[in-house]
Amino acid sequence: MPRPSFYQEEYYPSPMRHTWTDFQRNHIALAGLWCLLFFIVAAFLGPFLVPYGPLQQNTDMLLLAPAWNVNGDISHLFGTDSLGRDILSRIIHGCRITLGTSVILVLIAMLVGCSIGAYAGISRGLRASVINHLLDAIMAIPTLLIAIIIVAILGTGLLNSMWAITLALIPQFIHQTRDLVRREFQKEYIVAARLDGASNHRLLVKDILPNMVEVLVVQATMALSVAILDISALGFLNLGAQSPSPELGTMLSEALDTAYAAPWSVALPGAAIFLMVLSINLVGDGLRTALKNRLLQ
Amino acid sequence: MNSLLTVSGLSYRKQKSGLFSNRELFRLSPLSFELKRGETMAIMGENGSGKSLLAKLLVGVLQPEAGSILLNGEPMCDSRQQRRFSAIRMIFQHSKDSLNPGLTLGGQLEEALILNTNMSATERKRQIENTLVKVGMLPEHQYFYRHMLSEGQHQRAAVARALILDPQVIVADEPFAALDPSVRSQTANLLMNLQQQLGLGFIFISHNLGIVRHISDRILVLEKGKVVESGKTEVIFNWPKSEYTKRTIQAHQELISGQ
Q1: Superfamily classification of domain A25-296
Q2: Is A192 in contact with B145 (Cβ distance < 8 A)?
Q3: Cβ <8 Å between A6 and B60
Q4: Nearest-CB residue to B140 (from A6, A13, A18)
Q5: CATH at B47
Q6: What confidence tens digit (pLDDT) does each residue in A79-126 have?
Q7: Average pLDDT, chain A
Q8: What range(s) does the ABC transporter domain occupy (chain B) (predicted)?
Q9: ipTM
């Protein structure tokens, strides 16, 4: 016998779906999301689309103004820098390096931090405390200082600065995850699931993780904006990515010499960093508001 | 007829362990009772008299200090934890909190089946649908999340969760407390019907004397962790012995005759 359908639409929005619907109502956050998506697409596809390589020099056109300037040329949309390299191509490659490395290191920090935090959350007593505060000493030192220490030991380079930032991001993930796991473990649905015979590990993966994903995503967006700022700051200080590399911070410090003659070579990479961080913060903020609204109802 | 659940000498002590001394916070004095198949027992008592604690000891959330719990004459110890989980099921006081907000109702019911039975995916689905229908919900409700269900449906979902493993005993901690009168009587009748159909032993904690009198066969009265009175419902309602029972029953009678 076919079962009669009592509901007009067979649609059961999950809590995650709820958060997304709520997020969509926030137009500014949505604009931020589009902006972020644009940067991600640029990072993935951009290098195949741009006409020049990031290191390719056009010695006939040094310090060319952007195309909208009277002195500009349409062949170099954002102009060129002091070595005749196309700024648009360099910015797009720079998005790839800056955004890409930041995403990778946030993912690593999240994975490590959440595993340690979850373990600290389910263990008890002294051990939990030790694990929880294992990396707390790192929180006391600013990220840049840790990076300088690591760079002093291992030498400069993008990879070394990535290690430093990853290490600096891990403790906040540990704390967040541990607090969440602790809090959820107090709740009655965990007792109920335990009475179904679930082990601690299973409780964590099957029962708590679905309730934790969104909070972790919000945390990850905040960490991402910090990571981008730190990567480019280290690049700017010549401690991270080194000179010919089109990393956005490195580009800024390089262009600083000619900032008076060619302000666009500073302004445009700076604007790229600004927009990237702004869009990520907007998305993170929108997600946080949406999550709070859902948890309040 | 031999008893379904035999509890003898069950005691528990809640301590706060300090650096130098252990301060005793609460003590459940040794208590014993028997529950027959199809029988309903109500546990009554003031707040903080150890009712919920007793329920938690019975289902295995807490480990007793001493004493034994026998199900069909077999002791329920750690090695049989899994059998105990599927034989004695609990309905929580706040049924909403006992449902996971991040999973569908069906997902949670299935989890219990995965962990305790060897059913295939199709059998599990059928069992979930049957159980939902049994407690008066629709099979479609398995796709629902906690926030989409009403208070009464939460209660039914909690009952479904208890029933899905075909238990022999159900322990309910104030299952009717948070419900409005109509849903309360619906749930009470639902539980009574299910009990008659399935021959369950039912232990419940309640403050509501009307319901206690309506559905329970026997009553156990706790006061500060001690059993002060136990016996058949009618006997206790007509000839209460302890001060607390006298007071509550008198208040209840006045309430009824006043209407």
Answers
A1: MetI-like (1.10.3720.10)
A2: no
A3: no
A4: A6
A5: 3.40.50.300
A6: 888 888 999 999 999 999 999 999 999 999 999 999 999 998 888 888
A7: 88
A8: 5-249
A9: 0.83
